[in-house]
Amino acid sequence: MVLSEPYWDHHIPLPKLGPLQSRLVTAFVALVCFINSYDGDFVFDDSEAIINNKDLNPDTPLSNIWKNDFWGSNLSSNSSHKSYRPLTVLTFRINYLLAGGLHPIGFHVLNVALHCVISVLMIDVFAILIGGLVHDGRGAKLSLSPKASFLAALFFASHPVHTESVAGIVGRADLLCALFFQLSFLVYCKAFQGGDKKFSVLWIFGSILLCAVAMLCKEQGITVLGVNAAYDILMVCNLNIYELAHQLSGLLMRLALLFLGGSFLLYARWRIMGTGPPSFTEVDNPASFAENVILRIVNYNYYYSLNAWLLLCPWWLCFDWSMGCVPLIKSATDWRIVWPLLLWCCLMGLVYQALCSQDSNKRRTLTFGLVLLVIPFLPASNLFFRVGFVIAERVLYLSSAGYCLILAYAVGFCSCHWKKHKVSATLTLLCVNVARSAQRSQQWRSEQSLFASALSVCPLNAKVHYNVGKNLADRGNQSAAVKYYREAVRLHPKYVHAMNNLGNILKERNELKEAEVLLSAAVNIQPDFAAAWMNLGIVQNSLKKFDKAEQSYWNAIRFRKKYPDCYYNLGRLESEGFFLNALKINPNVASCHGNLAVLYHRWGKLDLAKRHYELSLRLDPSAPGTKENYNMLKRKLELRQRTVG
User: Fold this and answer.
1) Which of 129, 420, 495, 626 is most buried, by the most CB atoms less than 10 A from its CB?
2) Are 185 and 192 in contact (CB under 8 A)?
3) Phi-psi region of 240 (alpha: psi -120 to 50; beta: other; left: phi over 0)
4) How far apart are CA 120 and CA 154, in angstroms?
């Protein structure tokens, strides 16, 4: 197959750099965009995937990472998320070992470095997709589109939608998956170094093996087989409507290898999941629970249009898009229905140009742009199975490569027809992307700034308000936290975690009646919520509803067998009840008053402790230890009085 240099490559307003220089510039741009995240904290999902994940601890057997999911839960458990990414967890474990503990700098530095490497490799990927795999007489690889592939790689390196994958440590899964996705594609291309009619089965098997590695980093890696097949059909065989039979036997053999390899990997993945696919709730993905199939399809397409908008205008970025952030379209009169219609009009226009243009370079570039845009996104599309999110910026990491390729073509096309301001327009676009990426990366440095940034993007998202409240409570600002917890419950009246946390704060503020109402509602909505049962028991104990408190503690233990805090509280309840019952029978037993005072002293009920210490000393002034404890309590009360004063 004879390939020609794209005519629009010359018109792209970038200097023609050598291979090394273009790679260095791309890596530098990627570094500038996200370097300010290198000393950020562990934020959002990092808590579960890293801080609370025992599989990172060197004392945990290494074999556990092959049995557990990404979050450290056993894959056979019904509560498992079923996200099987052992190689990603292994890199976390290596970070832990090298740093001697959970120090986020090493985790962040590796993420930024991976993004730089991936951005550099994108130059090779784009060069092949635009200009084909071409070699000189000595076998050295040639690029027929040096400027176009360089510009597309710069767009990829600086796209702000990548911030979640790069600045969020759990985004390591997307980065590693993308890296081995690229390597699988490049290795597949090497199978054709001997010419169009010859291919190496060994290189094809190598590509399938790298696909398996990508899947062990994140499930999305399987989609590289689709990209490889598209490259084979459209580039290697130069398939078109009029020439179908050329090289058909070799093509069928290669497609069969890809199909068999992919089928084996999917079967292995299914067996690993153990108990079947994960279960998600309506708040995770409300459209997938719509009873009307038409409404479901309309809302899925609306989600697609929002993803497309994030690629086109990545200004409204949010760490979480669930819980009311994107209200469902429920009728044909909803004006938002325009957006999926507009999306499909644009896609059909691109498909028409990709299939029917007289310019073969244009057809090739747009076709591969669409292939890279659509195929990696398919696992997140809800077409094959229900996913656990509405929108997730991290799943656009690979798909954005297709968008960047189409955008580079658009810049080249416009530069051919509009000579004025083409340099300034291109540089402005790149600079805006870099600035927005740097700004967004700064927001991901801490939970406080990350959660606060989401309030303006998704003010209807109950989870955003919950996380802002939780962050404020963790920093000791409980009064402000109450406001956000209340708003989270208002936006989502069945948000049991917000109810539980709000009930805890109200309990500490001695607003026991409202705390009891909230916690009772939480356990009615989710009867197996062990923590809420325990907190309800504590509140009922404070309200002297001892029988109800005991029942709540036992309910908590029933749903969580290993719950030492609850056993402790149950022991305290029974001991208090014992002393109170004893005093009902005989109120003049000094030891009962003294022991009850010690309990209240430990629980922080200082006024009750003072009363029972005094009663004990009045009945028995020489009671052992009681006077010393009473003096300690008086000093504590005096200190509190001075602090208040």
Assistant:
1) 129
2) no
3) beta
4) 9
Residues forming beta bridges with residue 68, ordered by sequence position: 74
Direct distance between the N- and C-terminal alpha carbons of the chain, in angstroms, rounded to an integer: 88
φ/ψ of 283, rounded to 5, equals: -70, -25
Burial (Cβ within 10 Å: 0-12, 13-18, ≥19) of residue 239? middle
Kindly state the tokens that stand for 491. 């936006």
pLDDT in tens, 278-332: 667 777 777 888 888 888 899 999 999 999 999 999 988 998 888 878 888 888 8
Write out pLDDT tens, residues 546-573: 889 889 989 998 888 888 778 877 777 7
What values do phi and psi take at 243, rounded to 5? -130, 85
Helix or strand or coil: residue 141? strand
pTM across the whole model: 0.82
The torsion of the CA quartet 162, 167, 173, 177, rounded to 10 degrees, works out to: 40
Tokens standing for residue 304: 């697609």
Q: Do the Cβ atoms of 553 and 570 come closer than 8 Å?
A: yes
How many Cβ atoms from other residues are within 10 Å of residue 291's Cβ?
A: 6
3-state secondary structure string, 86-135?
A: HHHHHHHHHHHHHHCCCCHHHHHHHHHHHHHHHHHHHHHHHHHHHHCCEE
b/e per residue, 25-63, with b = 16+ CB within 10 A?
bbbebbbbbbebbbebbbbbbbeebbeebebbeeeeeee
Q: Cα dist. 522→488, 500, 535, 545, 561 in Å? A: 14, 7, 11, 19, 20
For residue range 177-220, what is the model confidence (pLDDT) as tens digits?
999 999 999 999 888 876 555 778 898 999 999 999 999 999 99
Per-residue pLDDT, averaged over 165-169, amounts to 94
What's the CA gap between 310 and 433, in Å, rounded? Answer: 12
Within 8 A by CB and 6+ apart from 151, the residues are 12, 14, 408, 411, 412, 426
| 484-508 confidence digits (pLDDT tens) | 999 999 999 999 999 999 999 998 8
Query: What is the signed CA dihedral for 400, 402, 408, 413, rounded to 10 degrees?
Result: -140
Could you tell me where the beta strands, DSSP code E, fall in 217-334? none
461: exposed, middle or buried (C-beta count within 10 Å: 0-12, 13-18, 19+)? buried
Neighbours of 517 (CB within 10 A): 14
What are 596's two structure tokens?
Answer: 């009850």
